[in-house]
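Worked example 4.2. Below are the chains of a multi-component assembly; read each line carefully before continuing.
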Amino acid sequence: MSFEKFHAIEALIRRGREVAAGMDVVSFDLFDTLLVRRIHDPDLVKLPVARFIAARTVEAGQPWPWQKVQKLRDDIEKQHRRETAKTFVDHEACYPRVMLEALVQIFGAEKGGALLPEVTDYELRMENSMLVPRREMVAWLRDLAAAGKRIFILSDIYLPASHLEVLVDHAGFLDQVEAVISSADTFLAKASGKGYALVRDRFALAGLKWLHVGDNPVSDGLRPAEAGITALVLHDATEKHRKAVVKRYVNYSGGRPFWRGRALQQLMQPLEGENLHRSELYVEGFNFLAPLLGGFVQHIAEQCRARGIGKVFFLSREGWTFKRFWEQSIPYLFPDGRLPEIEYLYVSRMALAGASCAHQGLTRANADIAFLPPGNRDFRDLCRIFNLDVAALAPHLQRHELAVDTCLSHLHEGYVPWDKVRFYELLEDQAFQDEIKRQVAEPGEALHRYLAGAGFFAHRRVALVDIGWLGTIQRFLYEAVQHRDDCPVCHGFLFAATRGIPYPTTAGNSVEGVIYDRDRFDMAGSTILYARDLFEEACRAPHPTLNGYKLTAEGYELQFRGTDDNTGQAELQQDRYFSPLQQGVFDGAARYGAASALLGYSLPDYKPWLNCLLAGKLAFPRCREVTRIRQRHHLDDFYGRHVPKKVHVKGSRHLWDSSLWRLSLDPLLRLRYFLRHLRERIKE
Amino acid sequence: MLNRIIPIGNFGGGGGVRCLVVLAILHLLGRPIFRLLIHYEHRLHSLYMFMKKLKNRR
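Applying the procedure described above to all two chains together yields the following structure tokens:
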């Protein structure tokens, strides 16, 4: 009566294939044999469920802390095990009975019973998110099934067989198995050996040759051997090592906030069959961008719940990625469903700039925004951005001694400060403003119709989510609609807020930089400024930018930029290059949601690690990283084509624009740029 | 302390020397160590429990 023990899965399967040739029946243990958990301690999966129940108690008006919910569940489970032990040898418990009793104690008989299916669904969803099939073991199981062996799965656990079938089905091999048997249904477990007798009787296996494979030396080794079943036990060193690493990160994160983000990343890691060869860009998307975007959308969702925001509008084009990330990650984090509606809004600075003038005209602040990019020089650039007809406005310029090519930006040769003064006087000219309002009236009306159709005016509070950096899109959008009585309170959430120009914050319109905000001194977070274009390109939607809104008889029409010219083609090329990076981000979304729900942390907890990640990746990147994730093209119609004075070009050089040979050979290059960055941030 | 000299930002108090050493060993040498020690896990577990008991008594 002995069993064979193996310390590597390959050795066990090799031996198993030899032994199984002469067997009629093969049974497998489920957990740690066919399925492995991402987390070292299976009990940690119960914690998000406790948090979910606690959220429901808040809705019911009798708030329970989640720790109290968890303690009640544990106490009831212990009580059930004690009760079972009076009648059976094995001290087993059954999840539906335990959970029902817990819910009834918290919510009362009627509501508790009604909540059980919902709680069970979430518990199984969390289990599924944390379970990964062992590739080699499942492949062997498939071979055995194809060879006509009778396959069973036996597990000693509190989940009944019907629940285990959900997990096995999700793992993709339920169709290969004759039956799944759980000790929770009969309280006859493998640990006492009675589970094997039960299976033998129920499935008429007497006289048949039976092989059992598992990971517990007693339940899966000694007991089947006593019952005359050939047993192979896996004692896997690789798995022990993996779990030891996860355990340290999770345990350290309790006392040291620095490790919380790292623990999150460890739980997100692909395992077994998920761990395929991927391109380096995909890995960067998964490991670097996904945790950052995850923290961003989780923070927005928390703020929406706290502030009572009814709808989240993800602004094009980066919002496309944020919305997709939200859809895949947020259901894990907020299973109670108390979330705002979400919608992708087609906007752009160019499309909104003109529409923002329809009611208020062209303001001095908005005109100054147009001259922020160094490529914009004169009135023609202003007209391009605000979609104005230069010819119709030329007489107004002449009245103020200006011409369409008068230099209005101090970054360019030929700039005369008096011209700027005359330009500001022009902005005070009522006839000039009336002409502007006349020109942009139709796009302004089309925008209102579009927003009304998207439900923008149907909520008291809305969130506007964009990548950054000045909040110009939100500024233009709010200015276009602020005169309406039904204009909602706009809460802006930017991935990073650089605030190069002061944002006109009011009670009805505000912006907040989530990962970085210049208004909060955050040196490590500010390293985002090293490669802003990288984040824009990585998150960009696969459609061209919006040029404007056109008023039609039916309502409105969205006018997109063509992709036939050089800019459009370069953008397509860039999108193709970054598509593996985006895929990495999307594949990381659900993993982020599950891992963060399990850990119970949010952005402030992850921020120390994310800061470390940002500073390491952006301020002190390896040469290879720069080569890999530096964008090929970044073009924007908002930026003009004029070349500023050399002195301004020199001052705006960045580490990520450096040539590869400099990055490789200059050992102090990164430090120099970092010290310059520090100086600039402190001086701000 | 470092933040007073160079304000590089919030790193949550850092990783901690002990944690960094343990994790470095686990990442760099963990695989061969676990492969070796897995054969003596039962005896090591007994030793670990004995040490834990001693620690708790103190």
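Take a moment to check your reading of the output against the notes. Chain A has 29 helices and 15 strands. The domain at 4-34+134-235 of chain A is CATH 3.40.50.1000 (Rossmann fold).
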